[in-house]
Amino acid sequence: MSGYAPTPTAAKQDAQTGILSRILLNIRDKLVIGFLPRGYPHSVTPDYTPYTVYQFLHSVTGTLTGTLSTQALLQALGLGAGAAVGLAATTNWIIKDGFGLLGGVIYAGWMGNRFDSSPKRYRFIASLSIQAATFAELLTPLMPHLFLPMASLSNIGKNIGWLASSATKASMHKGFLREDNLGDVTAKAGAQGTAAGVVGTALGVGLSYVAGTDPMTLFGLFVPLTAANLWWAYKANGAVVTRTVNLERGELLLREYVRVVVDGKVGRKGAPSSSLTPASWNDGAPSPFLPPPERVSDEEQFIFPYHSIFSVPLALEPYMAPCLPSLPPTRVSEFLSGNSLGPGGSGEHYRLLVVKKRPKSRLGLKKGDPVWTVCLWFLQDAKSEDILKGFYHSCVLRDMIERRPISSVEEGMERVQEGYAIVGETVGELMSSMEEKEWDVDHTYLGYRNARIVVGLAA
């Protein structure tokens, strides 16, 4: 009988390899349990993994630059030069922290629900704010006599960045969920952030020891680290798929769909044509003209200001008082009651009007000549489906006006009714297609003023 009999040495090596494999597997399992949500990867969406990797690298580089800037601040304060200097340094430190907290409070009150509406945009703004604040701290050794104002401005920037970062992370975490595990995802994000902070602090201490206190050396380290930090922030944001609807995502979502619907209803020349229902395109399947959240997220702009893809402007919840005088007196009550939308319009929870308004700059200042603008308001008790329907109607109306420009308010009201008929026939298919493509139809972020109206009362 022939065969291979392992030698004692080979058997011992196999046993050691088996023990090492089990140890490594045990360590891996412990890391997974400590840093990833229970049930990963099935308990979260696919965009969670790349976001987490990029966010970890972003946090490490952020901690690195923070360590270098802290060293610069301490040098500017001149700690260790004497008791009087130490007392003055302590006072200045407390004052600049107080200004930072105040700035964060004012910023939070001003932003409202924008963190939920555009988390990627304000997450990136947070990264820019923190890095700009860190740069200001690095400058303090060059002008120690301006320590208090510079450090205060820096702390305001950092508090704004930290507040925006934590607020937008919460919104992003909700988008990762496939189960009811928000607490688990948030806890693991905290563990990942702590680990990144430990790694970044260790590397930062090592760099500080090597670099010393020379400002130019610190600048030389700061520039590439900041570039890496912002790059990882950009990659982390780009990996996130946002499934709620705001103005930008809503327009990107509906543009192609609206074009096809209006083409089928009014034809190329504006004359009524044979009815084309969504069901005739897709035999009951989700509309091929409605993009999924992944495609819209790829097109979403979160660095530069968004410019509408419609040529006809939309005013979401503008002040109503300046708009009503453009209506004939007999039409005002018809508009407020909803009857101006068309048959059955009195039961809707939104109102639409086309008036001439002067466009506004990014700072809210009026500029240029008045142009025809679609104005959209929601009633006080409007639900998410009402808001989506009203926004869909406004997009249909804007597309129709692009094809057939109007010359009067009366013409605009006629176009509102034409659009309402199209919306009535297609909104059911739109909503079902959005749900099947995993859009969040239960939460919308359309309008920042929260200027809901009660019938008969202007906001």
Structural class: mainly alpha
- Based on CA atoms alone, the radius of gyration comes out at 29 Å
- Give the integer mean of the pLDDT values: 81
- The share of residues in helices is 55-70%
Strand order within the widest sheet? Answer: 2-4-3
Q: Can you count the helices?
A: 14
Which spans have pLDDT < 50 for at least 5 consecutive residues? 80-87, 266-276
Helix and strand pattern: HHHHHHHHEHHHEHEEHHE
Based on the model shown, name its key terms:
mainly alpha; 459 residues; 62% helix; 3-stranded mixed sheet; single chain; globular
Topology of this protein?
Blueprint: H1 8-35, H2 48-77, H3 83-111, H4 114-117, H5 119-139, H6 147-176, H7 182-211, H8 215-239, E1 245-246, H9 247-266, H10 279-282, H11 293-299, E2 314-316, H12 329-337, E3 350-357, E4 371-378, H13 384-403, H14 409-436, E5 444-445
Parallel strand pairs: 1-5, 2-4
Antiparallel strand pairs: 3-4
Question: Could you please describe the fold and organization of this structure?
Answer:
Helix content is about 60%, strand content about 5%. Strands 2-4-3 form a 3-stranded mixed sheet. The protein is mainly alpha-helical. The radius of gyration is 29 Å and the shape is globular. The relative contact order is 0.10. It starts with 7 loop residues before the first helix and ends in a 14-residue tail after the last strand.
Quickly describe the structure:
The chain has 459 residues and is mainly alpha-helical. It has 14 helices and five strands.
